[in-house]
Design brief:
- The chain is mainly alpha-helical.
- The chain is 69% helix and 4% strand.
- It has four helices and two strands; from the N terminus they run E-E-H-H-H-H.
- Strands 1-2 form a two-stranded antiparallel sheet.
- Strand 1 and strand 2 form a beta hairpin.
C-alpha cells in the first residue's frame, strides 16, 4: 500500500503530509534565520544551517513531486529539458566559466 500524499506507506509507517513538510521548512527557516542573527558560535551556526537544509530538501522534493503529478507530462517536461540543455550548452561554451579561478587564485 503506497500513496504519494497519503498517511500510510508500506509497512504501516506514518509519513508527513506535503503541507506538513512545507510548514516545517517555513518555521524551521524562520526560527533558524532569527536565531542566526544572535548566534556567534560556529557550531551553533552550523547546526542551525543544517536544520534548515534538512527540512528544505524534503519540502522541495515534495513540492516538485506534486507539481510533476499535476502538470501535463509530455510537452511541458520536454520544453523544460530543452531549456535546461540549452543553458548547459551555453555554460560549456562560455569562456568566462571555463577560465574561472578560485577566489584565492588572483
Amino acid at each position: 500500500m503506497f500513496k504519494l500524499c497519503g498517511r500510510t506507506h508500506g509497512h504501516g509507517q506514518r509519513r508527513t503530509s506535503p503541507s506538513g513538510l512545507v510548514y516545517a521548512f517555513g518555521w524551521t527557516a524562520t526560527v533558524g534565520l532569527a536565531t542566526l542573527s544572535r548566534t556567534h558560535n560556529t557550531y551553533a551556526i552550523g547546526a542551525l544551517l543544517a536544520a534548515m537544509a534538512f527540512t528544505a530538501t524534503p519540502a522541495n522534493a515534495m513540492l516538485f513531486a506534486v507539481q510533476i503529478h499535476s502538470t501535463p507530462q509530455t510537452p511541458t517536461f520536454l520544453a523544460f529539458a530543452t531549456i535546461v540543455a540549452t543553458i548547459t550548452i551555453v555554460m560549456h561554451l562560455s569562456t568566462t566559466i571555463r577560465t574561472m579561478r578560485r577566489p584565492d587564485d588572483r
